[in-house]
């Protein structure tokens, strides 16, 4: 059970008079013992005015698409004490996720294969990070009497990239993801909000320079400007967050990317420093790093639920999964196996699936003419 942060945190912390610089060092050591590759600390009262303005402008343009939750919480995203009263520090942690897997570009270049974003090849990271974060927070609470906290892994309105940037984990790349000089961008972020005023770290500079490779390679031109993403065009959004029909104009651009998209990360020069994960939970499951679209399309709901139990993919549901696969099959090279797979779901119980199957079959019929 997580504790509610007290209204008078400084009094509690001062009563036990801990050495906050020493405690900051200990927190980092404990975090590394728990499997986090980086642990850094930001001041919860840091100036976030630019972030607030940027978020407001992003929302005003409708770039959030159907992600209504991005607009619901107002300044609680940028003012931690409004979300959790008494918050003084934000501890950001990183965990590498890049598994040993089939080369991504080879899979993307093979139209018969299904490309799954490399973060989703294993177990759902929310569960892994949250468990470790809770252990780290409990360790801090055991060290400082009356210390209070709350842990987050995509579970509340927290601007995780901004806070990680404030703490010096890395900098926001032009694709909007956080980049580290030591680990590229292929890592997960998690946070602990705490009322214990441990010593903070300093931010670092931005090292993207004049590079625009992530912008140039985006298949759907979703990165509309440096540091500005129109989620409505982003393949990750379209295949995961978007629940309805995928706009027809964007379907051919999706290619065989059936769950997420890594192109902007794969092309980033800093990811030559990306580190392979040592976490067994993030290892490839079900051969998802190099599997055919036809095979995945053959899974019924029971197989989908069973095979993908504990996977982040399971959260989108079987219907949306089939929708994504139908688009991939529509973009695949025409073959009897591909056409037969699509024909087999022409009368699917889901109107959403039927619509995308019809589009896919029309694509193959056009090629035959």
TrEMBL record:
Enzyme class: oxidoreductase
GO biological process: tRNA queuosine(34) biosynthetic process
Residues that bind tRNA: 243
GO cellular component, one term: cytoplasm
Co-factor requirement: [4Fe-4S] cluster; cob(II)alamin
Record-listed [4Fe-4S] cluster 1 binding positions: 208, 211, 214, 268
InterPro entries noted in UniProt: 4Fe4S_Fe-S-bd, 4Fe4S_Fe_S_CS, QueG, QueG_DUF1730
Record text on cofactor binding: Binds 2 [4Fe-4S] clusters per monomer.
Places the protein is found: Cytoplasm
Annotated active site: 154
Pfam families: Fer4_16, QueG_DUF1730
Main location class: cytoplasm
Domain called 4Fe-4S ferredoxin-type: residue spans: 196-228
PANTHER family named among the record's database cross-references: EPOXYQUEUOSINE REDUCTASE (PTHR30002)
Family: Belongs to the QueG family.
NCBIfam families: tRNA epoxyqueuosine(34) reductase QueG
The protein's name in its UniProt record: Epoxyqueuosine reductase
Source species: Nitrosovibrio tenuis
Gene: queG
